[in-house]
Amino acid sequence: MQPQATTGVVMPNGTVDGIVPANDTVQSYPSPITAWYCVLVIALTLMINFLDRSILPLLIPAIKADLHISDSAMGVIMGLAFTIFYALFGLPVARLVDRGTRKLIYSAGLGIFAVVMLTTGFARNFWQLFATRIAMGVGETTSGPSAYSLLSDYFPPKQLPRAFSAMQIGFVVGVSAAPALGAAAIAYATAHPGLGFAALEAFKPWQLTLMLVSIPGFFVALLMLTVPEPKRRGAIQPTQFTDVFGLVGRHGGVYWPLFIGMGLRSAQMFATQTWTFTYFQRHFAWTSVQYGFIWAPLSLGAMVLGLAAGWLLSEYFQRRGRADGNVRVVLISTMVSVPFGILAPLMPTPQIALVMFAVANMTSIMAAAPENAAIQSVTPNRMRGQMTFLFLFIMNVVGNGLGPQIVPTLNDLVFGEQGIGTSMVVMGLVCGIPAIIAFALGRKHYGAAYAAGGVENLM
Fold first, then answer.
1. Measured between alpha carbons, how far is 199 from 195 in angstroms, rounded to an integer?
2. Is 93 left (phi over 0), alpha (psi -120 to 50) or beta?
3. Structure-derived torsion over alpha carbons of residues 233, 236, 239, 245, reported in degrees to the nearest 10
4. What is the pLDDT of residues 299-312, one digit of tens each?
5. What is the pLDDT of residues 25-57, one digit of tens each?
C-alpha cells in the first residue's frame, strides 16, 4: 500500500502549502555510489545508441546516390522504419520490464542493437536498409522503459530530475559527437578502401562507417550486466495494460497534455536533428567534415548547459514549494526553443544559423529530465514500465516516426530539395506552437497530482 500524503493545499500558483508528497516518503534507497554508477552506465548506453543513430543523417547524400532514392524514402528509413519494432513489441517488453530483471532486458536489447547496426552496413538496396532500421528499434524498445524504471528505484522523486539530467548527458554526447566522429569515420573509410581488409573492399564508405560505429555497442552491453538490480518500491502486483489506459483515462488532465505536448515537440526536435546537415549542405554548400567539426563542439556545449539548466531550474521550483515545477520547466523550455527552431533556417549566414540551432537545442534539452521525472513521479511503481512505454510510444511514433518524414515529404511535394529550410520552418509552426499550448494546459493538473503523492491519491 502506498503511504498517504500529509494534508495540504495546492495554491493557485502551484505552491504546496503543508504538503509532503507521498512518493517522497523516506525509504532505504541504494547507496549514492551504486545509484550514480547506474546513471553512468545508462549514460554510456545512451551515448552509443544515439551515436549510431545520429551518424546516419551525415550519410544521406551518399546513400541517396548509391541506392537511388528520394528525400521521402530517406525520411522513411530514418523515421518510420525505426518506430515499427517499438510499435509491435514495445508493450510486451514494457510489461516484462515491470516484472522481470531490468538490467538483463537492457543488456540483451543493447547487444541485439549492436548486431543489427553491424548488419546495416551490408544493406545493398532500400528494402534491406529499411529492414535493418526496423530491427534497430530493439534498442529503444528495451532501453527506455528499463532505464527510467531502474532510476526511479535508485533515487527519491526529488532527485529524479538531477539523475535523469545526468543520464541524458549520454544522449547529448552521442548526438553532438556524431557529426564529428561520423565525418572522421567517413573520411577514413573513403581514404582506406575496405578498412585494409580485402574482404571489405566491395563495401562503400557509408557502409563501412556504419560497421565501425557498431563496435562499441557490444562492450557497453556487457557493462550493463555489472549494474545491481535495485529493489522495486511501492505496490508491485501485476497489472494489465488496460489498467494503464484506465489510469490515463481517469487522470487525463495530468497525462494527455504531457503526451501530446511531448509528441509534437519531439517531432520538431527529431526533424531538426535529422535534416540540419542536409540543410547546411544544400543551403550553404558545406561538407560533412566542415559541418561536423564545427557543429559537434557547439552542440555539445549548448546541450550540456541546457541539461544543467533543466535540473537546476526544476530543483529551484521544488525548493520554492511548487508542485508543478517539472512541468513549469518543460513549458519554459518549449516556449523558448520553438521560436529559435523556427527562425534558425531563415538566417542569412551559416554562422548565425548555427548559433540559432544551438540555442534551440540548448533550450529544448532543458525539458528532457523534468519531463520524464514528471511521468515517473506521479505514476504507481507497478505501472511505470508500461506508462513509460506509452510515453515513449508517442515520442517514437509521433516524434521520431513522423518528424523526420514531414520535412522530406514537404521537400518532394511542395518546396523542392532547395526549399528544405522552408520545410523546417513549417514543421516548427505546425508542431511547436500546439506543444506550448498543451504543456500550459496540463501544468495545474500535474501540480495537484504531485502534491498528492501520485495520481492514485487524487480524490
1. 10
2. alpha
3. -20
4. 889 988 998 898 88
5. 445 788 889 999 999 999 998 888 877 777 888
Helical packing angle, 205-224 and 160-191, nearest 10°: 150
Just give the CATH number of 29-225+242-457: 1.20.1250.20
pTM of whole model > 0.85? Answer: no
Domain boundaries, the chain: 29-225+242-457
Place of cell 514537404: 410
pLDDT at 348 over 90: yes
Task: State the cell numbers at 409.
Answer: 515529404
Residue 396: DSSP 8-state? I
Contact 29, 10 (CB under 8 A): no
* Cα–Cα distance for residue pair 359/325, rounded to 1 Å: 22
DSSP string, 306-347: HHHHHHHHHHHHHHTTBTTHHHHHHHHHHHHHHHHHHHGGG-
Tracing cell 511521468 back to the chain, one arrives at: 375
Of residues 129, 146, 3, the one with CA closest to residue 67: 129
**Three-state secondary structure along 126-192?**
HHHHHHHHHHCHHHHHHHHHHHHHHHHHHCCHHHHHHHHHHHHHHHHHHHHHHHHHHHHHHHHHHHC
Of the candidates 174, 69, 141, which has an alpha carbon nearest to the alpha carbon of residue 397?
141
Tell me what pLDDT residue 264 has.
Answer: 92
DSSP 8-state secondary structure symbol assigned to residue 202: T
Q: Is 40 exposed, middle or buried (0-12, 13-18, 19+ CB in 10 A)?
A: middle
Instruction: Report percent pLDDT > 90 for the chain.
Output: 27
Q: What is the largest CA-CA distance in the chain?
A: 73
Distance (Å) of CA 353 to CA 173, 266, 386? 21, 20, 39
Core vs surface per residue 270-279: b (16+ CB within 10 A) or e: bbbbbbbbbb
Task: Give the Cα-Cα-Cα angle 84, 143, 237 (nearest 5 degrees).
Answer: 100
Most confident by average pLDDT, 39-43, 203-207, 372-376: 39-43
